[in-house]
Amino acid sequence: xxxxxxxxxxxxxxxxxxxxxxxxxxxxxxxxxxxxxxxxxxxxxxxxxxxxxxxxxxxxxxxxxxxxxxxxxxxxxxxxxxxxxxxxxxxxxxxxxxxxxxxxxxxxxxxxxxxxxxxxxxxxxxxxxxxxxxxxxxxxxxxxxxxxxxxxxxxxxxxxxxxxxxxxxxxxxxxxxxxxxxxxxxxxxxxxxxxxxxxxxxxxxxxxxxxxxxxxxxxxxxxxxxxxxxxxxxxxxxxxxxxxxxxxxxxxxxxxxxxxxxxxxxxxxxxxxxxxxxxxxxxxxxxxxxxxxxxxxxxxxxxxxxxxxxxxxxxxxxxxxxxxxxxxxxxxxxxxxxxxxxxxxxxxxxxxxxxxxxxxxxxxxxxxxxxxxxxxxxxxxxxxxxxxxxxxxxxxxxxxxxxxxxxxxxxxxxxxxxxxxxxxxxxxxxxxxxxxxxxxxxxxxxxxxxxxxxxxxxxxxxxxxxxxxxxxxxxxxxxxxxxxxxxxxxxxxxxx
Amino acid sequence: xxxxxxxxxxxxxxxxxxxxxxxxxxxxxxxxxxxxxxxxxxxxxxxxxxxxxxxxxxxxxxxxxxxxxxxxxxxxxxxxxxxxxxxxxxxxxxxxxxxxxxxxxxxxxxxxxxxxxxxxxxxxxxxxxxxxxxxxxxxxxxxxxxxxxxxxxxxxxxxxxxxxxxxxxxxxxxxxxxxxxxxxxxxxxxxxxxxxxxxxxxxxxxxxxxxxxxxxxxxxxxxxxxxxxxxxxxxxxxxxxxxxxxxxxxxxxxxxxxxxxxxxxxxxxxxxxx
Lengths: 496, 274
What we know:
The complex is a heterodimer of chains A (496) and B (274). Chain A is α+β, with helices and mostly antiparallel strands and 496 residues long. Chain A has 13 helices and 19 strands. The relative contact order of chain A is 0.15. Chain A binds chain B through residues 224-225, 228, 244, 246-247, 249-250, 296, 299-300, 357, 360-361, 363-365, 367-368, 378-381, and chain B through 36, 38, 40-41, 43-44, 57-59, 131-132, 214-215, 218-220, 232-238.
């Protein structure tokens, strides 16, 4: 009689064990989510620093602006229900929708005035002050009406307001924004265990349609291999941008996971010190461009998942011009150009690389490719603080590799003191036109002029757009495939 | 058969050592492929007839890289141990000669100071300060070998100095320098060789660690440590990338440690009597 019971006991225990093992996942299935991302935000105040991780957590979740970017990069209403501009484009009127901060206070026009004036104040740490600089005055004729008068016509004013840096705060709670943020968004801040995770809870008094997920945990995992392990183990329901490009094939083969390859706004370039010989000679820069095969760099550095680019402009933008066919690889012509510039035997130079894997890997490949035309580049790896100090601030470099991740950041080619030392009246004039253009077509044409010019001048070597690799458990819908701005609006997510 | 070969540690150590040395020498004249040539479209290939140990993340031939890496490792060990041996033995003998006096104290205490720091940690400090690179790495590792040899040399020298024949030599009119050269140096050489082989293994490991951390040998020069570092992110997709350099480091370190063990026994006069 004992035997059958024993035989039963084994499978029964096993079944119980399985039930226990699957319990957390089942409980999580409907309204909870663990979303993993690579970097932890240093603070949570989106108006207080340049780190993209801040807005990856807060944008459209804890905080909102008057307007927002949607997943296609279009500007859509947020706290402003609607808006209008005067005929000369100088006066903007924003009508606010009825909305509340997480502490229960109502969002008023005074909060908007306060937030924008705070952003542009001399002691403000806002990373995108240019958004607010055109503002001449802000009036609040009614609690739900904001009237902004500009100093001069600014074509990208509204786009600026859609960025995470133009968040609306209340004066009462802004002091705690860095660590205990109080916003207006669909999720309220609950708890932050530094170095590990951050908990958000659905804000049931949000103005929009009720989000499907009740509680969301952001987890921060910087090591690429650990990211893969966490996904395979089920510790993460999704990773917003996987660092381990080489693991994509393995993750794709996993029936539980869905992998989406999208684009960020990160133009990865070999930045060249244009102010320094021999790089001040256009022929040298052209020769370099003809030696570097960006398609192979893309393959070797990010497993071919990036999008090759021929200029400093994102293919996500409607004004994008595909210039990848300019200066195709031609080693014979490259050598001839170098010889014409006075370097028949090439020259020795340095390539200073910041820490990310995309930079270090691209660097090895670019150095090998330049070696084919006699440019002997010594690789010098740097840590971020060193890189920022030596390369970015002191311009003490020949070449470097870095991704410029801000959206529509082509304005860096108009800054005289910028690290790659490029100056072009033509580009400056065209960029001014993008600000004053009265029609979208005119504005796009100005952007195209800039793209053509910086490719013509071969300011830098343009490699590829950094990919966004979204990996999620099957059944999770609504994650952004691309990053027009680095953001993960949780209200759009649901389990199917 | 020579009894030395019958000593198990020495025999196996010498055999492995010959293997590594052979690989390093071979790489001077021949490698299956150019170890720095990239074939990006043929990256992460498993071992095949064309690429015996497969290709790495840039399509470079791993077999060729490992061969050249052996040269790199031996060179690092040789130079680092050389630095330690020359300066360490000189300082150690000097200290022994002036035993108990200010010079002895000054030399030995400052070497104690160096010795007190963890070697790899301080090498990282030095490399951060002077910039990463193979030359700086070798010098940093070499500096940490100095106190090791100096202590041994001082102790051994003192032992020899106490012998009657040294006093006889001095009485016979031999200068201090001549005593050092003719009597002391030959007597402590065996001990230094044993220490050298152990430090050789340490130096190779240290260089691998520093290169693994990205501050040792810089690309495109192949280094086992850096190969390991590169392989780390491909561990799931291409494990052979990590296995090959890991195995190479293990074999080389084992070779020198066994060799050191064997030499210690063989050079010990008491062992000879048995």
